[in-house]
Automatic annotation (TrEMBL):
Stretches that traverse the bilayer: 191-213, 219-237, 358-375, 387-405
Name of the protein: Fatty acid desaturase domain-containing protein
Region (Disordered): 144-166, 496-515
Domain of life assignment: Eukaryota
Keywords, in A-Z order: Membrane, Transmembrane, Transmembrane helix
Keyword Transmembrane among record annotations: yes
Tagged with keyword Coiled coil: no
Amino acid sequence: SRFGARAFSAHCACQSLVALIFPSRGSMSGQQPYIKLEGKPAEEKKGRRSFFFQYDYADDEVATPVGTTTKEGQNDLERSTKQSKYTKISLFYGKDDYVEALKNAESKKAIVYSAKVAKKESSDAGADIADAKAVQPDGANAPATAVAGGGRGAQRSAKTGRMYPTPNKDEMLKHESIKFLFTKMTNDNMLYLWEVFTCLFVAQCSMVLLYTLVLLQFLPYWPATFLFGIPMAWLCIQNVYCLHDVIHGVSFPPHDWQAFITHCWADQFSVSWEDIVMEHMKHHSSTPDLLEHGEFGWDPAEWLYVLQYRWLTLPLVPLWHFIGANDTGAIFAILWYTNFPESYSQLYTKWFWQRLKHHTFLFVLWGSVWMLGTYPMGRPISEGWRVLLPVTVACRTGFSMAWMVFANINHSHMWNAWLAKAPERQYPCLTLLLSIILGGPARFNEMLFHDLHHGFPNAVGALSMRGRFNGWKKVHHAAMEALSYGIYKAEETDAETKQQQLGKRRSQAFKEGKR
């Protein structure tokens, strides 16, 4: 009935909000798929611990096997976003009937979503996205895949001269402890990610309303602005991680309007949802190795790395992001729009109208922010900038911080050389701080294993997304083991890259650093 439907919606919204704040809890049901001791229980470690996020775990200490390739594991993965323990009882249903009604509603949503994805994939824009995913390192049409007559594709890098690397997926699938990283998300998992994204957008809108209608009305300007700005910036950091999760796992939103909310707070002018998916796929296909930017063609994000190559220009990196050079900024949108699509006929038939819709939404959203700073506060319409400015500064700060982590830190020689020392066990205070800033250890895993993500952008996807459904510790354990086998296959004609050497050294250092 209508009451039951409303209760179900409220229940989902509350659960999604909890998952947004604590993304590594693993399941909406409140069950924590964290620690399970197999065989002899590991003794409690004394001495160094990373406080709340314990990276100093024993070798036999693994997470509950949610989402493994076994039948039971797949059932667990499906349940990870279904409420297996419903506590609300409708006035109009018995408990069993109410639970059954909720489960049926979820199943129907998943079926409808599956049909919608199939329809989207057959559209022009959907076909372009599918083609872009296929040419990534682990895609079906990657340059390293087999060609007719046997052997591999002959594409060599014009920059380094090496063959396009082949992901070492066959070796990794031999090990049950790693296989779960390659399992495909269920439709319920996909819907859940978009529910979390929607809750994030609602939270961001609520913060702007709270700032203009409450904080500025009752507090002095600077205290009100800081009380708004710091949480808003943190929400925008989460925005980038949620954006990255859905780009790699759920490229087609369940509702068309959700395509407009993915990064609308980043800038007043930005690329559309379909464009950001395409440019990110291009980034992966051209940069399979973290330390060789644009090794196999043009990388749209390559200009983000230029300033970090010299100490003199390094301080300008935050400003470069802040003014809109990152993937969700205005300057980047100009760069991408002038390079894609390649023909004007495609521009008009495939991309122009969806871009127009996206920019119309941005105009309405930021126009509303401007208006909130005028008549509701007793000001003329010309002074709307007095609210729009602090709002956009807070948002740009959050987006810039997140993109600096993704682009500049994750792809830097210094960071990857430091990771080779297994710092998560050696520097617990820094580990804790970064986990809090980024939104939890599942998000920090994205920073620790970005090389694995670049090797398997389709099969593994985002490490933060894997941590959401499987628990951060299980993902960390499996990713560290995967590094020991090598992300890419060894090539007889090519020497190991610096990134490959660092990965193997790191997995060994992590084992040796355990007390």
